[in-house]
Amino acid sequence: MKVMTKEFQDIKFTIDDRVARITFARPPLNVFNIAMMAEIGEALNECISRREVVAIVFDAAADARAFSAGVAIEEHVPETIFQMLDSFHSIFRALAQISKPTIAVVDGAALGGGCELVAACDIVIASERARFGQPEIKLGVFPPVAAILLPRIIGEKRARELILTGELIDAGEARRLGLVSYVVPSAELEQKTESLLVKLRELSASSLAMTRAALDLGGRSGFESVLTEVEDLYLNELMKTEDASEGVHAFMEKRKPEWRNK
């Protein structure tokens, strides 16, 4: 039975036959601003109370060109940076609390915060035109969640290279590294997703949740405490540097940053 939940501005949220689906609907690039992240958080909170849900799917609306191009740069300023980072990281804390299998369906670019969300999902189905990357360093900042999760997923050396250079990779490379589970043509994304959901719908929601919690204990132990430390470094040291401010302003002003290395 399909349950339409409350109307949101920047996402669509449905629960259909024990599967919750959060669809990013802020075209063209599904950039996460504070308002949109609050909506994602609200949808995830709804999932906490629904014990029958076996999985959460993240995807993008058909009129969007990207899964998500990341977090809004214009909110990366001193007045809103604390709220922005808190809103974004609340999504990951909610996913840890819900402890249900998560699937990302990626057609187009997943960059910055979009790539971090992909990294946090259990299963990732990508189209052949999908692209992934953490370009934050080009703005003079770094991706806190990726700094923790990417080395665990794709290996220490490659993760360091991607984060330190801001290099983008295609779906094939992401699959080879282990960031992506399946690569299929765009037209087959929904079919592949459904074939996975058929398997999950046959299983116990509570058993899946406990198994997900066990996997988190083994593979991502300490994520929340480490995230708190990384947030502190980001907010109280990095964001007080001249270059972090310059990188963000240069991006908004569409010019090349002039680094002062301090």
Descriptive overview:
The chain has 262 residues and is an alpha/beta fold. The chain has a single domain, classed as 2-enoyl-CoA Hydratase, Chain A, domain 1 (Alpha-Beta Complex), CATH 3.90.226.10. It contains 10 helices and 11 strands. The protein has a 7-stranded mixed beta sheet with strand order 1-2-3-4-6-8-11, sandwiched between helices. It has a 4-stranded mixed beta sheet with strand order 5-7-9-10. Strand 1 (2-4) and strand 2 form a beta hairpin. It is globular.
The CATH class label is Alpha Beta
CATH superfamily: 2-enoyl-CoA Hydratase, Chain A, domain 1
Radius of gyration: 18 Å
Largest beta-sheet characterization: 7 strands, mixed
Q: Could you name the CATH topology?
A: 2-enoyl-CoA Hydratase, Chain A, domain 1
Compose a concise summary of this entry.
This protein has helices at residues 34-48, 81-98, 113-120, 144-154, 156-165, 171-177, 189-201, 205-219, 223-236, 242-252, and strands at 2-4, 11-16, 19-24, 55-60, 66-68, 102-106, 109-111, 123-127, 131-133, 168-170, 182-184.
Which key terms come to mind for this protein?
262 residues; alpha/beta; 2-enoyl-CoA Hydratase, Chain A, domain 1; 7-stranded mixed sheet; 4-stranded mixed sheet; 11 strands; 47% helix
Protein topology:
Blueprint: E1 2-4, E2 11-16, E3 19-24, H1 34-48, E4 55-60, E5 66-68, H2 81-98, E6 102-106, E7 109-111, H3 113-120, E8 123-127, E9 131-133, H4 144-154, H5 156-165, E10 168-170, H6 171-177, E11 182-184, H7 189-201, H8 205-219, H9 223-236, H10 242-252
Parallel strand pairs: 3-4, 4-6, 5-7, 6-8, 7-9, 8-11
Antiparallel strand pairs: 1-2, 2-3, 9-10
